[in-house]
Specification:
The structure holds 2 protein chains of 2 kinds.
Chain A lengths: L4 E5 L3 H9 L4 E5 L14 H13 L3 E6 L11 H10 L4 E4 L3 H8 L6 E3 L8 H9 L4 E3 L6 H11 L2 E8 L11 H6 L17 E4 L2 E2 L12 E3 L4 H6 L4 E4 L6 H19 L5 H14 L4 E2 L25 E9 L2 E6 L3 E2 L3 E5 L6 E4 L3 E2 L5 E2 L1 E2 L5 E5 L9 E4 L3
Helix pairs in contact in A: 1-2, 1-9, 5-6, 9-10
Chain B lengths: L2 E4 L4 H8 L5 E6 L9 E2 L1 H6 L6 E6 L8 H11 L5 E4 L2 H9 L6 E3 L8 H9 L4 E4 L5 H10 L3 E8 L2 E5 L3 H9 L7 E4 L5 E7 L2 E5 L4 E2 L12 E4 L6 H13 L21
Parallel strand pairs in B: 1-2, 1-14, 2-3, 2-4, 4-5, 5-6, 6-7, 7-8, 8-14
Antiparallel strand pairs in B: 8-13, 9-12, 10-11, 11-12
Classes of the chains: A alpha/beta, B alpha/beta.
């Protein structure tokens, strides 16, 4: 059995590199056109070429989302675009509109096709249909349970990808155009305004419900850490993390944590203690509560938010390592830290370790009592060697 | 001239509508469809006198594994009938292709099928009809009609589903705040706009703020094969009156057109 793939989002080149360095086996990204998440920075063709070279040098893969629902005008330039993706050896495209399948076939473009979760494929007949017409992988809708996923895999033999972490559409993906009708932004062409997270008054039998807690369709985020062994055992081929708009720190932390959990499971080392530690890390980096949603039971009110968005940003991300010279680390400051703080260094290359800061210098070698300016470069003595792209964060207790 | 297809709110309502000068009816199938006030099972289907009108059976549910056995049974039961099948999920196509009846199929995906080339994909599979989304403009619609061989259906009157969730969103909320259930619901946005919301066995649907009504554009829609009138959220009498107006091609002062004349924007920078 092949080892399961850990698939990370990448909203820009920096996040892509971080994702791959921190343990993703593959990254999915959007081009400037034809991709949902129109608000992400997204990648030019030159960027995609560079991304492929970077990933392939590491033995990893790049998938490109071509996942809008096309209107007539949107197909202009699509053939050339797809040909370029093939030329750069993109490892697959993720599509929700099947017209792309025809274009790929008619033009003999060598690009493996993955069906997006936007198509809401949640049964084995549908997955068998995709298999019959040459699709290589199906990203299942998020409304499937563990038993449904297993039955789909058992009855189709198809490569199946599922989401394991991140924000959830409250609707079946693709079957929501609230943005279109409430804000004139096309949800299925990258303009989703997340109306499902708005508050509404509910009218019941012509009477407004008078309650300080408003009606919302907002769901809690997804976290499948607990079920990683089960997901691997039932034969899922790829585990996808949501969040092309998320921060570098979020990507590094979430990917690194799942990387370790997956590897530990394969190595027979995923102990309860380790699991609890990983869960703590994921919970700290999350800005909303997260649960397993449809995987282990049918979602109820417990899987929804009713008290506002409850998004909490934390200051765990203290800095990014810019270099290590003569026993001193150079850090690009992200959040406040001071002498005496106990911090952790996480790294794609080595185990996490903790360190107590005893001195901090600015770039002119002035001694500081704290680092308070984001993006400032500071340095301090560190007896263990670290590398560029290692991250310094608050110690997770 | 376009034919007129209607759905109804009950068997009695359907029977009344069948006596009008409409061309056909859409029936939503119990356990296999969503977003209707009225569902029929196979026995009821066999008992209706359709008065030589065309019959369109709607199986627009997103199918899960547990639906497939009944879906297969249903398709087996109706495969030799003179009906068309409106469907969302490609599981329906897969099973119909086994029975060699893909020519009965009409793709009906609410929001996922919005272009000439998408329709060509489905036509290439042997699907001969398309109930095209109302998320597109008149010009886009006509381009689909002109550049494909699809038989085109388009919503001319009725509420358009704009959000469909597998979750029981209304019940969840009412339970959370400790409030009893009611019969009829809507939600009101910060801007004071009210949207009907309904919860059924298979989840929750939110609809447009009011009925889309293209009655004033029927002459420019003549190339469209079928104009659909959907009765969901509309009481019987009001709906029946509007059916009469559509048959007469009446004109009304002002109606809600959805995106018929407005393009959506999608890049917000």
């Amino acid at each position: 059995m092949n080892k399961v793939e850990l698939l990370s989002p990448a909203g820009n080149m920096e996040k892509l590199k971080i994702a791959l360095l921190y343990g993703a086996d593959a990254v999915y990204l959007g081009g400037i056109d034809y991709s949902l998440r129109a608000n992400a920075k997204n990648f030019t063709l030159d960027d995609i070429k560079e991304a492929c070279e970077f990933a392939h040098n590491l033995g990893k893969k790049i998938y490109v989302t071509v996942n809008i629902v096309f209107h007539n005008e949107d197909t202009v330039g699509l053939v050339e675009y797809l040909k370029n993706l093939a030329k750069y050896h993109v490892d697959g495209i993720i599509v929700s509109d099947p017209l792309v399948i025809n274009i790929v076939k008619e033009n003999k473009i060598e690009l493996p096709i993955h069906i997006s979760t936007q198509y809401s494929s949640v049964n084995y007949e549908t997955v068998n249909f995709w298999k019959k017409i040459g699709v290589e992988r199906v990203v299942l809708g998020r409304e499937v349970s563990r038993d449904e996923i297993k039955e789909i895999i058992d009855k189709t033999g198809m490569d199946v990808e599922i989401f394991i972490h991140g924000a959830m559409c409250s609707s079946y993906s693709g079957r929501c155009v609230l943005s279109n009708y409430l804000t004139n932004r096309d949800a299925n062409r990258g303009g989703c305004a997340q109306i499902c997270r708005w508050n509404f008054d509910l009218i019941k039998d012509n009477q407004k419900i008078d309650n300080k807690i408003k009606f919302t369709m907002c769901s809690k985020d997804l976290c499948m850490l607990k079920y990683i062994p089960d997901i691997i055992d039932i034969g899922v081929c790829s585990l996808k993390v949501e969040g092309r708009m998320r921060s570098v720190y979020y990507i590094a932390t979430v990917i690194n944590t799942y990387r370790r959990a997956i590897d530990d499971y394969y190595n027979g080392e995923l102990t309860l203690e380790k699991y609890n530690h990983y869960l703590k890390i994921l919970n700290r980096v999350a800005n909303r509560d997260n649960v397993a949603q449809f995987f282990d039971k049918f979602p109820t009110e417990d899987e929804q938010y009713f008290l506002g968005r409850e998004e909490v940003s934390n200051q765990d991300y203290l800095g990014m390592v810019e270099g290590y010279f003569d026993g001193y680390v150079e850090i690009r400051v992200k959040n406040y830290f001071k002498i005496g703080d106990v911090v952790e260094f996480i790294s794609p290359k080595r185990d996490t370790f903790e360190f107590k800061i005893t001195e901090i210098y600015d770039k002119d070698n002035n001694l500081l009592d704290c680092a308070r300016h984001p993006e400032e470069i500071v340095r301090f003595k560190l007896d263990k060697e670290v590398s560029i792209y290692d991250i310094m964060r608050i110690k997770v207790k | 001239m376009s034919k007129i297809l209607v759905s109804g709110n009950s068997l009695e309502h359907i029977n009344k509508l069948l006596h009008k000068d409409i061309d056909g009816v859409i029936l939503y199938i119990d356990k296999l469809s969503v977003n209707s006030n009225f569902y029929v099972d196979i026995d009821m289907l066999n008992s209706i006198n359709f008065m030589n009108k065309e019959v369109f059976l709607c199986v627009n549910k997103i199918m899960h594994n547990s639906d497939l056995e009944y879906l297969r049974y249903f398709i087996k039961c109706i495969k030799d009938k003179n009906v068309k099948i409106l469907f969302y999920d490609m599981a329906v196509y897969n099973i119909c292709s086994e029975y060699g009846i893909t020519d009965k199929l009409i793709i009906y995906q609410d929001h996922m099928n919005a272009s000439v080339l998408s329709n060509k994909f489905y036509y290439g599979l042997g699907i001969k009809g398309s109930f095209v989304t109302n998320d597109i403009t008149y010009d886009e619609l006509m381009e689909i009609k002109d550049k494909t061989n699809m038989c085109i259906l388009f919503l001319g009157y009725g509420y358009q589903p704009i959000f469909y969730s597998r979750r029981y969103l209304v019940s969840n909320y009412l339970k959370y705040i400790g409030c009893n259930k009611g019969d009829k619901y809507s939600v009101v946005s910060d801007m004071g706009v009210e949207y009907p919301i309904s919860e059924e066995q298979y989840g929750t649907t939110l609809y447009t703020k009011t009925e889309i009504n293209l009655i004033n554009y029927l002459s420019s829609l003549e190339k469209i094969d079928y104009i659909v009138m959907n009765s969901v959220n509309i009481d019987d009498d009001k709906f029946s009156m509007m059916v009469d107006k559509f048959i007469r091609r009446d004109k009304l002062d002002s109606t809600y057109l959805g995106f018929f004349k407005i393009k959506t924007i999608y890049k917000v920078k």
